[in-house]
Amino acid sequence: MKSTSLRIILSLLLIAITAQGIEARNKSKKVSKKKAAAWVAEGEWKNGFDAMPDATVNLQEFYAQYHKNKAQWDAAFKWLAETDLLNIPKGKLMIPGTNIRASIEDSKNEPLEKRKSESHRKKIDFMYVVKGSEGFMLLDHNTSTPNCEYSEEKDVIRYDYIPEKSHFFTSTPKRFVICFPSDWHIAKVKTPFSDQSLRVVVLKIDYVE
Question: Minimal CA–CA distance to 174: which of 114, 123, 134?
Fold first, then answer.
């Protein structure tokens, strides 16, 4: 009798473990690059916003995060489309009806050595240059290492990196940059252009696991 009960318990445990494994595998499945690119091109996500992702944006992650948090992304794109981004006063505000913080910044790109590296765990950095151009570096994971503890309060961790292993690019109006937690980055890096001044809108959007 005890042997039979033990076999039943073991069988139930095995079923539960198998089910958990299947669920974990299903959750880990990502939409294909082809499907994500087609979805971006179709533009159903735009909500009136006239810009496209920069070539550096992880479109599979964009697709996933949009569908996990559609209401917030829709509100963000609607606000971007309906706001006079050139003339709105600089500063910070909350997008109405959301917990998305928007920062409108009139700033300048600086030499790389003056800029700080960063990544975030709770928030996604959405950056849209309204005027001018902004220089970015995306860090190489294999040769970069954290140089501090992650700050839960500030949601930031910083890195030591090799500039030659990092990817530099510029962002201009009509293209936006999205940095997900896996995108270790440096913003406002000096560009080859003569004018380093810019206006940029930065949105902090929740990252959904």
Answer: 134
